[in-house]
């Protein structure tokens, strides 16, 4: 990633020197990354992640719940959102706030009841909003009945989890045991814990309270299939599959090779995770789940049920989740298997930040579009989630509108984390030295301050009343950001211009056929300005201009995209922009304000 220490070079001499290379770059990066037809529902909509504890509290206990979500679904409709995925709502002791599931088919009591969930589905259907559930198949809670029975070696649960005897301690008395190998937990420490009742070690790639299921046991695979069927019968539109690249471990449980870059043997960075992550069986399980959902849609009718997969992996591994192509044939055709509709693309989170240059942005965007399969794949762009700092914190609050302009005009699917549409930022006051009521995974230590995920999980800021309108109770599970009196949805809806109104207008503009089906050409105009054109034969052509820095920049769009009309109309601008929708600008003499994100409309491009 390029560190922007040098002064931006925007003079004419620089531009004409590099113009041939820029034009070649634009041509070489013309990408058709959207479906040729109108596409299925999931290819056309914007997805929105709700963190249930923080969205809306209906009963004053300070914790968000299902009736609260139901009461606020109108907001999603108003914003133009077509689908929302809920972080886990299943019964859980909440060691990892729902990612440690005790019962996959029961609702966490503090969130409500199954009747509350069914009422949410009814209201969502009325509003035309799809509901996606967070599915956590890699591990359960240690309070799950399956685990308790497995500890007791009760048939058929004996091998539902990954159990090993461990190694004899060479420095002990012959009976002392050590963990089976050098595998580490993602959350630090050994990935193995000795259970005194069973007398064996169990594997947990996350916390010790999250034992890994044994997916080499066909009974476990069938249990997970039945969980999917249970919620499909309820009427959900699909599943976001958590930590999918951790499902399988290598047979024999060999030690993993050391990285040589981290000398702490208890740190996750101590080894290369070649035996615990990204195994071929992980992909095959996704293909099996996709087949189940496709079969369900064929039998029961209705819209497609979808899979979204979370895997922090290199881009080559991530692309394998889309589908598989095999060497053999079936009925004279190459055998293939469909996989994830949306292997989550985290590049806007992991590879870019406030210090990134225009070249970094173009490279990162084009990286996904280049590696993505040419057929049967739709791009997606995840801008934030419950594990990562918010957009305004990562990129700077001054860039919120510009980054949303980017997100909502790229080809494919956009995913928004709750609160980003109004520009919420991390609340550092949500971190307490003892862990408070927040992120219990990171624990009470200095590591908590560094790695806590609480700052990006604070309550939604609905209005300027007490607790930002999130709860009528005296306290909330995490403190509301103190800026809520100025930064809240109610105020932004009333304002002439705001983050929310910019976001809302961009979502509406995204429905234009050029954004749904058109190609894209990306160019780093300078180190601080990204420009790209979205075009489609016999439809409007749009140019997007993103200024990453505070100062104004002069841009000659005709020099980069010669087929543009001389005059362009402003289709969208940031909430602090000097331009308004409908303003006319000169394509060869555009002045872009600091941190502005502009969408400009050209004349229709005739077929050629």
TrEMBL record:
Species of provenance: Anopheles melas
Family: Belongs to the glycosyl hydrolase 13 family.
Pfam families per record: Alpha-amylase
InterPro entries: GH, GH13_cat_dom, Glyco_hydro_b, O16G_dom_2
All copies of domain Glycosyl hydrolase family 13 catalytic, residue ranges: 49-457
Signal sequence, renumbered to the chain: 1-33
One record GO biological process: carbohydrate metabolic process
The keyword Protease is assigned to this record: no
Name this protein carries in UniProt: alpha-glucosidase
């Amino acid at each position: 990633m390029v560190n922007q220490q040098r002064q931006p070079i925007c003079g004419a001499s620089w531009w004409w020197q590099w113009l041939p290379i820029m034009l070649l770059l634009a041509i070489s990066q013309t990408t058709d990354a959207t479906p040729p037809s109108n596409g299925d529902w999931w290819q056309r909509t914007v997805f929105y992640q709700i963190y249930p504890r923080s969205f809306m509290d209906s009963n004053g206990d300070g914790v968000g719940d299902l009736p609260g979500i139901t009461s606020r679904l109108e907001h999603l409709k108003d914003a133009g959102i077509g689908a929302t995925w809920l972080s886990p709502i299943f019964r859980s002791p909440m060691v990892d706030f729902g990612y440690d599931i005790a019962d996959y088919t029961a609702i966490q009591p503090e969130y409500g009841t199954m009747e509350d969930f069914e009422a949410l589905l009814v209201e969502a259907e009325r509003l035309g909003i799809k509901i996606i559930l967070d599915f956590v198949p890699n591990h359960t809670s240690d309070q799950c009945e399956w685990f308790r029975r497995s500890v007791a070696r009760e048939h058929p649960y004996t091998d539902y989890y990954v159990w090993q005897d461990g190694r004899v301690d060479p420095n002990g008395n012959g009976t002392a045991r050590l963990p089976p190998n050098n595998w580490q937990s993602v959350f630090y420490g050994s990935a193995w814990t000795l259970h005194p009742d069973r007398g064996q070690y169990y594997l947990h790639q996350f916390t010790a309270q999250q034992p890994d299921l044994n997916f080499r046991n066909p009974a476990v695979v069938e249990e997970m299939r039945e969980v999917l069927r249970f919620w499909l019968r309820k009427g959900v539109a699909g599943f976001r599959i958590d930590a999918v690249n951790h499902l399988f471990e290598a047979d024999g449980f060999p030690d993993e090779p050391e990285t040589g870059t981290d000398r702490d043997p208890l740190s996750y960075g101590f080894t290369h995770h070649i035996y615990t992550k990204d195994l071929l069986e992980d992909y095959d399980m996704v293909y099996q789940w996709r087949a189940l959902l496709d079969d369900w849609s064929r039998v029961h009718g209705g819209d497609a049920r979808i899979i979204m997969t979370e895997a922090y992996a290199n881009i080559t591994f991530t692309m394998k989740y889309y589908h598989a192509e095999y060497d053999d044939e079936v009925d004279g055709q190459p055998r293939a298997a469909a996989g994830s509709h949306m292997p989550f693309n985290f590049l806007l989170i992991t590879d870019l930040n406030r210090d990134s240059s225009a070249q970094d942005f173009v490279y990162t965007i084009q990286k996904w579009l280049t590696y993505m399969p040419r057929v049967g794949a739709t791009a997606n762009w995840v801008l934030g989630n419950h594990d990562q700092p918010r957009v305004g914190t990562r990129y700077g609050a001054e860039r919120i509108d510009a980054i949303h302009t980017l997100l909502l005009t790229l080809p494919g699917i956009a995913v928004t984390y709750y609160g980003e549409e109004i520009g919420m930022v991390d609340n550092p006051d949500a971190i307490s030295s003892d862990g408070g009521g927040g992120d219990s995974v990171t624990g009470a230590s200095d590591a908590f301050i560094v790695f806590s995920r609480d700052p990006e999980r604070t309550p939604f800021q609905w209005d300027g009343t007490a607790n930002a309108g999130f709860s009528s109770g005296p306290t909330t599970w995490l403190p509301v950001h103190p800026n809520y009196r100025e930064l809240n949805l109610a105020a932004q809806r009333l304002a002439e211009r705001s983050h929310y109104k910019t976001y809302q207008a961009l979502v509406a503009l995204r429905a234009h056929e050029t954004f749904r089906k058109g190609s894209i050409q990306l160019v780093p105009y300078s180190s601080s300005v990204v420009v790209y054109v979205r075009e489609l034969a016999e439809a409007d052509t749009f140019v997007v201009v993103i200024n990453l820095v505070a100062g104004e920049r002069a841009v000659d769009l005709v020099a980069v995209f010669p087929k543009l009309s001389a005059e362009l109309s402003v289709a969208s601008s940031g909430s602090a922009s000097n331009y308004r929708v409908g303003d006319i600008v000169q394509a060869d003499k555009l002045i872009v304000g600091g941190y502005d994100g502009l969408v400009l409309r050209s004349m229709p491009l005739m077929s050629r």
